[in-house]
Amino acid sequence: MKQLTATLALLGCTLLSTAAWAQAHSDKEVKQDIQRHRAMAAAHEAAAKCLESGKKPDACQKELQAACKGLAIGKYCGMKHEH
Predict the structure, then answer these.
(1) Residue with more model confidence, 77 or 33
(2) What pLDDT band is residue 41 in, cutting at 50, 70 and 90?
(3) At what angle are helices 27-52 and 57-68 packed, to 10 degrees?
(4) What's the chain's average pLDDT?
(5) SS3 string of the chain?
């Protein structure tokens, strides 16, 4: 029981410190995040249009990956949906 309590306390402290760090963004950092989100949204819109045009999904995925290089983490440009 003591170990569980200690683990929960550590988890709580970690969550609180993470939340405090996340709120400590400067105005400049927030503006940069906004720009990145808009760029990712534009890349996803282009991917949707690519698919609508009849191109193969692999080709559209490669275009999405190229458009998102340096913007998001992972090969799905910050978003992955179920298939």
Answers:
(1) 33
(2) very high
(3) 160
(4) 78
(5) CHHHHHHHHHHHHHHHHHHHHHCCCCHHHHHHHHHHHHHHHHHHHHHHHHHHCCCCHHHHHHHHHHHHCCCCCCCCCCCCCCC
54 within 8 A of 64, measured Cβ to Cβ: no
- Sequence-distant (≥ 6) Cβ neighbours of residue 39 within 8 angstroms: 67, 68, 71
Short-list 72, 23, 20, 22, CA closest to 44:
72
Could you give the CA distance from residue 33 to residue 74 in angstroms, rounded to a whole number? 17
